[in-house]
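Q: My labmate handed me this sequence with no annotations at all. I'd like to see what the chain might look like in three dimensions before we decide whether it's worth expressing. Could you predict it?
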Amino acid sequence: MSEYLGHLNWVEDDNISPILFIGEYKPSVTPLKLYKPSGQVGFHKNIIVTNNGIDGNTINNQSYCVIQTLKKSNILGSSFLIELNNSSLPPIPNDNLKDWWINLITLQNSDFLENLTAIANKKKSNQFYFVCYFKYEEEIFNFCICCKSKTGKQYAPLDEKLIRNWNISIVKIIQHTKEYLLPRSGSTLNFQDKKVLLVGCGSVGSNIERQLIQSGIGELILSDPDVFKVENLYRHTLSVYSLNTYKSHALKSSLSFEYPYTTIESYIYELMDIPKDLLSKQDLIIVAIGNATQERVFNEYLKDEKLNVPTIYTWLEGYGLGGHVVFVDTEMEKGCLQCNYMDPNSEEPILHSNMNFLYPNQNVTKDMGGCGTLFLPYSHLDSEQTATMVSRMSIDVLNNNLNKSARISWKGPSFDAEQQRLELTHRYYKYKSPTYEEYQQESCFVCK
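A: Here is what I predict for the chain of 448 residues:
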């Protein structure tokens, strides 16, 4: 295929803007829509071909910036997606491109030719674009034939007689398909059918959301009753334009505009107010609210209601000391969240997690300038590091690489905490490199 690609790159016309192909590769012959986009979204100089993407059939997210631009754009001419069942080596610049194009058409089987002619000749046009592709060893190779009439509107140049009145060029294609973009960006198509519920859209949750989308999650549901305020600005992914709006709604709006292949829903439910039927439909639930009391109640609720949905809980500690992530398997037979709130010595329930790096009953919150709002001091770096750990664990769970209850932490330096004269736990001093560790307290009253 290296020779084929070399010829193709050689003969592509650099004087014509590349085609941005949005959609999916369908078999045989499929009519496309050809637009000249308006607006400033990075593709405003290019002609864009879409395969029903603007109608919502192939793009998960109709708020995506390019789709919004196309809805204000003009349709230029006729275009078709063609799956080739035979191909030939592209010509070199001195060869006759028209002869090669007609020969390529005749190489296809008779049913294909009949179908192509019937679809393409339904109406005349002064330009046709044929997005051609074929598969070789599970990989897709494509190119675009640009046909511009010399004498006004005509039928498509599909035979030796008609092609005389057409100028033919091969145009480069920019793939904007999920089959290309997700693997090319280090994501996977395996998660396109996965549904994840993220409860908590604060500094940690907002980073988790973006990372999960970039991992290829097909459907993401957000829930958080909190409003985005100015004091959140420097450790949150939202910008000043989202001030005084619900965090969940604002995140849906901003990320729907950026990413095409994730459907995002948003709600303002508290954790314990989320409908049972919504919980039961998820492949994974992530709780990032930083409220240990609510999280433990929710843990018991899932067990009592037999909602066998894998669940991840996460929180971080102040002064850059670290963050924690707990995975609870679907059956809760070998560990649950409550196991991490049991005293390992007395085996009695406790109010603070046995994972924490700070002893309880210490003053770890701050009040800046008497504003009356207490907050836990940590930086955006702490949020991002905790979120990354959650996202990696989520991928392991969805890939079935992690199917037993496990936990993991990251540990930062202690000098800020020590300056505040805070007492650190034995676990902080003993904890080494972050790796998954199974956990279960035999005396746990939830999962025993």
